[in-house]
Amino acid sequence: MGKRMLRLSIALAAVLLLFSACSKKKEFDEDMIVGSWDCSDGLRYDFNSDHTGQSGNRKYLPFTWELDDDELTLRYTGSGEGEADIVAFDRMIIDDLTPSSIKAHDYVTDETITFKRI
Predict the structure, then answer these.
(1) How far is CA 19 from CA 13, 85, 105, in A?
(2) Which H, E and C letters describe 40-108, residue by residue?
(3) In-domain check, residue 80
(4) From the CB of residue 72, how many other CB atoms can be counted at a distance below 10 Å?
(5) Radius of gyration for the alpha carbons in the chain, expressed in angstroms and rounded
(6) How far apart are CA 46 and CA 85, in angstroms?
(7) DSSP string for residues in 10-24
(8) Residue 71, in any domain of the structure
C-alpha cells in the first residue's frame, strides 16, 4: 500500500507540475487602450471607447477592435479614396500595457510592436 501511495503521489505531482508550466494569458484593462498612439510601424492608431478606431499617417483606415485577455484584434472594414473595399485583420499579443506605452508582438510574424501614447 505504501509503494502504491508513493507512486500515486509522484504521478499527481508530475501532473500538477505539467499544468503549472503552461503559460497563462495575461488580462489587460481595455480602457487603457482607448486614445491615440504612435506606433513603431510609423502609423498613428486612434482607439475609441466604442471599439472603433482608425490608423494611418496621412490617409486613415477605419477599424473595429477587440481585446480578449492579451490578444488585440483590429478588423479593417473601410476603403481609402479611389481604392477597393478593404477587409483585413491585424492580431497582436500584448506583452505589457502601461498608461503611456504598449509593447506587443505580431501574432503571425512574432515581430515586436511598440506604441507610445500621444
Answers:
(1) 10, 45, 25
(2) CCCCEEEECCCCEEEEECCCEEEEEEEEECCEEEEEECCCCCCCCCCCEEEEEEEEEECCCEEEEEECC
(3) yes
(4) 23
(5) 21
(6) 20
(7) HHHHHHHHHHHHSPP
(8) yes
Q: Give the CATH number for residue 40.
A: 2.40.128.280
Q: Are 43 and 56 in contact (CB under 8 A)?
A: yes
Quick one: 110 exposed, middle or buried, by C-beta within 10 A (0-12, 13-18, 19+)? exposed
Q: What is the pLDDT of residues 55-100, one digit of tens each?
A: 998 888 899 999 999 999 999 876 655 555 667 889 999 999 999 9
The full length of the chain comes to 118
All cell numbers assigned to 21: 508550466
Average pLDDT on 30-50 reads 96
> At 113, which helix (H) or strand (E)?
strand 112-117
How confident is the model at residue 24, as a pLDDT? 64
pTM passes above 0.70: yes
